[in-house]
Amino acid sequence: MFEILRRDGMARIGLLDTASGKLETPALLPVINPKLNTVTPQELYHDFGFRGLITNSYIIRNNEDLRQRAQSQGLHAMLDFPGVIMTDSGTFQSHMYGEVEVSNEEIIEFQKSIGTDIGTVLDIFAEPYWTREQTESSVHTTLERTQKAAGMKGDMMLAGVVQGSVYSDLREHCARSMATMAVDVHPIGGVVPLMEQYRYEELVDVIMASKKGLSPDRPVHLFGAGHPMLLALATLLGCDLFDSASYAKFARDDRMMFIDGTHRLADMQSLYCQCPACIGHDLASLRALDDRTRMVTIAKHNLYEIKNEMELVKRAILEGRLWELAETRCRSHPSLLSALRRLRVHQEHLEHYEPLSRDGAIFYTGSETRNRPAFYRYHRRMMETYVPVSEKVMLFPEGGKPYSRHYAEAFARARSRGYQPVVASPFGPVPAELDEVYPLAQSLMPTQNDMETESFIQESVQAFLDRFRFREVAHFDGDIEAGDERSDCDLQRAVAVARYQFGPEAAEALFREPVELVMSRNTGKIRNVISDGEHVLSMRAADGLYTLRVEGARRVLPALPSPRMRVIVHDDAAPYNMEGKNVFNRFVVSGDHGLHPMDEVMVVDGNDRLLATGRAVLTLEEMLSFQKGIAVKIRDGVGRPE
Ligand code: GUN
Ligand code: ZN
User: Fold this and answer.
1) Which atom of ligand 1 is nearest to the CA of 159?
2) Looking at the domain assignment, is residue 288 inside a domain?
3) Are residues 634 and 622 located together in one domain of the fold?
4) Looking at the structure, do residues 395 and 531 belong to the same domain, yes or no?
5) Which ligand approaches the C-alpha of residue 302 most closely?
6) Which of 151, 425, 452, 609 has the greatest number of C-beta atoms within 10 Å?
7) Is the Cβ atom of 419 under 6 angstroms away from ligand 1?
8) Last-in-domain residue among 500, 529, 560
């Protein structure tokens, strides 16, 4: 069983429950070759803190001594490892050396007999150069074998490998078919050649196609990905597990892994590394070690680099900064930069998982930042929901944030002359009413724009002007005289944010006359919206967005056809949610498939009766697939009926 504890976009911190305890993800499983033991499993567990490892059941089965020990003592005792053990099946050996002498059924039975926690199907490694026909037939066989293995797995958890090479439709088909089988973990396979050849943009497409077909309640393992520089990007795309044989393989040829790439000891000009393996060494002393000690030292160094990065990735998820980390890491190699740029074609899918807001600010790290789903969402929603308050627009250049404070005086004068102030920002045009909405005010941009941003600003402003057909377009030139037109910019903001966040129909229902705004005495910002005597919305200072009150939900419910903005729960859960208790995934029956994490939702029963309002933690598809965990954090229940 797998549950999500925290998430940022498609990235997640999860907990995988196995026979040998819980494994927190994202996690990297070092590969242990039971014949070599470069770093012992005991060291991996106690010194490095790895709670899982992966080894090869095919190698164990082919070695008389290992096979007997594994079958008599069990794998955990043989390796002396108290954590989670996953085994691979021999597929990789067939990729490397041709045919393997074992059947799918035999290797599944063998993995069961040695007490592995997670055993792997004997999938077919589809090579990137294979034809579509070859790939199609290999996917068919992999699916048949997975179905067969799922029927034999018993207490063992099963890894069903998604193949399909670089054919996105075959990947997605393979993933979707496997999602219906009794499989527990899904490695994405056949990607080692892509990584060896630095074909990272194809890797991005492969991961995205696989993720689309898989069910969100199972962890996804990127088979053979063990370089630290790839972990942030792969986690960002929703990979939960990784494995690394390269830490040991590279060490055997004196290659050291660093976050910016792999370097040969012979080519390095200096060494300064504070990891526990290197500390006390300089280049000369490391080179002078005897072969075995040097190899072990470098293997340990490589593991520390990997572990460090994995922990940093986890922290970035918790702090909402994984995009920044991935963008930074992808600058370490031009092929990774291509992968980052490739995310552009997947914006729409990524947007579905993009939270409504985050705690921290968005940092612009380069022109690729503008391809983030937060940018895509803002621009699309603004263009779809915004209604100008005047036929005259005045365009302002990017300035300090929030713009309405930076340009307070100028905006007031522009309004007094009947102009609608709009800032031409790297997010696209920002009407003054929306300037405090996440991520507009919660972002830091360089003051020196790159050329792509300059041209994006020009194009998006032109599209804005074309769309809204203003009668007059003026450009702020630092000096405007005051006029005498009056406008209620607080009310304009209140309505514009509601349209942006909930859509025009809901906004209309929420803003029934007379409307009174309660302003914060400290900040002068909108706090509460009172419509027709009812407190319908509260605005959060941190992200400039609303929380929906029960009174507001009572208005929105009849204005939006079911299931929009709704999470529909089982009748058994209804009394708890009415009392204000959170909605758990297993009680979710259906709802709005367009919900994003952190969206405001109305929790209703099967008869569309309002039970509570709250914030979605997951997308609806995730709520429906997970058995454990919170779906909606409830803010207000309607109260228990007498
Ligand atoms: N190790 C690396 N890639 C693969 C793969 O595609 N399948 C299996 N079973 N193991 C792998
Ligand atoms: Zn080191």
Assistant:
1) 9
2) no
3) yes
4) no
5) 2
6) 425
7) no
8) 560
